[in-house]
Write a structure and sequence with these properties.
mainly beta, Protein Yojf, Chain: A, eight-stranded antiparallel β-sheet, six-stranded mixed β-sheet, 4% helix
């Protein structure tokens, strides 16, 4: 992903709810999602902007930028020679260790990414990244609660959370609809799904928490950050 930066004497026209015309030596930032920000010398607030426009046109010789989103528009025209540069950018995240390539790892949103090689590792919901590293690949280990606490490698291909949870809880509980065994499966996240599928389509997403006993319906109860609940989130027992 790259961010384009334009600096110089420009006329900036905003159309729509904020109809204004300004001229000055400004800095125009065009982010990877095409959001346009125009900054002058004062403060941190842009003097003009358009977030994720539906259309963006940018030419550099001469400089001419038009961003349009419905009734909103932003036009930037160079009045003299300007500086135009392009810089690679990434999400800014919390540092969590070192990648196999030696680059820094950062956690942003639901993933850990390397700022060096750009490798990206999606995180299971509720996962925490540990200081301890994997003996096999050297990446950080993560801690996840899915019935009990599991610590596995950040790289799913190196050490699978599915395999760890499957070893502990596969066929541990019975389907409340047909009595078949509930198998631990990966369907986006981890679920406990009936072995009788497709004849029986019963399945439950495994919550972020630890098993805390049995529900009156026969399924396990989980202790989560939001309180105790049944594996079946719709259970009234």
């Amino acid at each position: 992903m790259s961010t384009r930066v334009i600096a110089g004497d420009c006329t900036v026209r905003s159309g729509g709810r904020r109809e204004t015309t300004r001229r000055g030596r400004v800095v125009v930032v065009v982010k990877p999602d095409d959001t346009v920000l125009v900054h002058d010398a004062d403060g941190y607030q842009p003097v003009a902007w358009l977030t994720r426009p539906a259309e963006l046109t940018l030419t550099t010789d001469p400089l001419w930028l038009v961003a349009v989103d419905g009734d909103e528009s932003l036009h930037v025209t160079a009045e003299s020679e300007v500086s135009v540069a392009e810089h690679e950018t990434t999400d800014a995240g919390v540092p969590v260790g070192e990648c196999r390539c030696g680059g820094p790892l950062v956690r942003a949103g639901g993933a850990v990414s390397c700022l060096g090689c750009r490798e990206r590792f999606p995180l299971p919901g509720g996962a925490s990244v540990r200081e301890a590293t994997c003996d096999d690949c050297g990446l950080p280990r993560i801690r996840v609660e899915r019935g009990e606490t599991f610590e596995v490698c950040l790289d799913y291909d190196c050490e699978s959370l599915l395999s760890a949870v499957e070893t502990r809880f596969d066929r541990e509980w019975d389907c409340p609809e047909c009595g078949g065994a509930l198998e631990i499966l990966r369907r986006g996240g981890l679920i406990a799904g009936c072995e009788g599928y497709p004849d029986c389509e019963t399945g439950f997403a495994l919550p972020d928490g630890s098993v805390a006993g049995d529900c009156d319906c026969g399924l396990p109860r989980f202790e989560t950050d939001a309180g105790e609940r049944c594996l079946d989130s719709g259970c009234d027992a």
